[in-house]
Design brief:
Blueprint (H helix, E strand, L loop, with lengths): L13 H6 L35 H12 L5 H10 L12 H6 L3
Length: 102
């Protein structure tokens, strides 16, 4: 919905759409490196398999995924350089290494 102008949203579901937004002030036309809102964009991951529901498995999975998150300083760097893909190689990807170890 973030890429569709709000005036084109179905009136009966506007509240439901906005409930998924990270900011009610999101404006797709104002997107720039200084804009921190991403609208309704998100990723969802589902893990399926034997033993995946155990507390130990959940703790390991959460730890690995948390290690992939950017801290505030890294997020600011990303936002300022996101249009220059080559400069984004400065970020380590711990997931690639950890997938092989778990």
């Amino acid at each position: 919905w973030a890429t569709l102008p709000k005036q084109q949203w179905p009136e009966e579901v506007k509240d439901s759409i906005l409930a998924d937004y990270d900011s009610l002030d999101h404006d797709e036309t104002a997107a720039s490196p200084t804009t921190s809102s991403v609208g309704d964009r998100r990723q969802e991951v589902v893990f399926i398999g034997p033993g995946i529901g155990s507390l130990d498995s959940r703790t390991v999975i959460e730890s690995v995924l948390d290690s992939c998150l950017l801290n505030d300083e890294e997020w600011d760097i990303f936002r300022s350089k996101r249009d220059d893909e080559a400069s984004l190689t400065c970020f380590e990807n711990p997931l690639q290494t950890r997938i092989l170890t778990y």
